[in-house]
Write a structure and sequence with these properties.
With 298 residues, this protein is an alpha/beta fold. Helix content is 41%, strand content 14%. The chain has two domains: 29 residues; 247 residues, Phosphatidylinositol (PI) phosphodiesterase (TIM Barrel, Alpha-Beta Barrel).
């Protein structure tokens, strides 16, 4: 009888220890996602905050400096304060790199699909600027860019290409402990919810181009504190921007393309006019001109 008592007691002790281990593991996982990115607070709407420039593809149409290039990020960052939109793609061997196109021809000296090459094989190619000039710069690893951003306290808005799982990109950001310098770009409600469910600690750029899309977002499971509202590449009514602001959300206008061309033709004062309409973040191909028009300096 005594032996049976000790066996039962021993089993209870082992069971309690296992339960404690499971609890510790669960707590560690929860802590990883409960530590919110500081960007949720930094990018909360404030009517007195200065406008922000988001440099499209890390810098376009800059002679001798290619898009999605680490050296270009550094070049622009030396001149103006900005955040940087970058494109993350995946190589044949699963490495995450910066590249916008599925193929290499337009932006590098290589040819063919990115997914046909390992990262080491890509090292033989050089990046080219938007004018076809070859540089000595290479396709950068995403991890290296993350570490540059952390070192320089620079925010990246991360556009994830279709060939890459959002989970892999977020895992890489977490691995490099770069949650406080990264915004995840999403294009529809389904993508936004997927990203939020996997990484509730991240700030998201969400598509809110009209009242309908904004309403979907407001009634989703995503807290408004996790949102930056990309309002599209066309101007909306002033009242729409006021409504977005009423939820504590900053607005992003994609001036890249048509609106940038309008400003170049009619005068850069248009950036200030758009600012007065309610634009907080300018996603632009003309970062230097936009910064000058909005009086944004280092």
């Amino acid at each position: 009888m005594k032996n049976l008592y000790f066996l039962i007691l021993f089993a209870l002790i082992i069971s309690c220890k296992n339960t404690e281990k499971e609890t510790v593991v669960k707590t560690e996982v929860e802590e990883q996602t409960e530590k919110k990115s500081i960007l949720l607070e930094t990018f909360k709407y404030n009517p007195n905050a200065k406008p922000v420039i988001s440099v499209h593809r890390g810098g376009k149409s800059i002679k001798k400096f290619p898009e999605n290039c680490l050296e270009t990020l550094q070049y622009v960052n030396d001149s103006i304060p900005a955040i940087y939109e970058i494109d993350v793609a995946k190589t044949k061997d699963g490495k995450l790199v910066l590249l916008h196109d599925n193929t290499l021809e337009r932006t590098t000296t290589g040819t063919g699909k990115l997914t046909d090459y390992t990262y080491n094989e890509l090292k033989v190619f050089n990046l080219e600027d938007d004018f076809g000039n070859e540089t000595t710069f290479k396709i950068p690893l995403f991890a290296k860019v993350l570490n540059w951003a952390k070192t320089n306290n620079v925010v990246l808005t991360v556009d994830i290409k279709r060939s890459v799982a959002v989970e892999q990109v977020i895992d890489e950001i977490r691995k490099e402990q770069a949650e406080d310098v990264c915004v995840i770009i999403t294009y529809d409600l389904k993508q936004s919810q997927k990203a939020y469910n996997y990484a509730p600690e991240f700030l998201l750029s969400v598509s809110a181009r009209n009242e309908k899309e904004l309403d979907w977002l407001i009634h989703s499971n995503i807290p408004t504190e996790n949102m930056l509202a990309f309002t599209g590449t066309r101007l909306s009514a002033n009242e729409f921007y006021k409504k977005v602001h009423s939820y504590g959300i900053k607005t992003i206008l994609g001036t890249l393309g048509n609106l940038d061309n309008q400003a170049a033709a009619k005068g850069d004062k248009m950036y200030q006019e758009w600012r007065e309409k309610g634009i907080d973040i300018f996603a632009t191909d003309r970062p230097f001109a936009t910064a000058k028009a909005l009086n944004i300096t280092k």
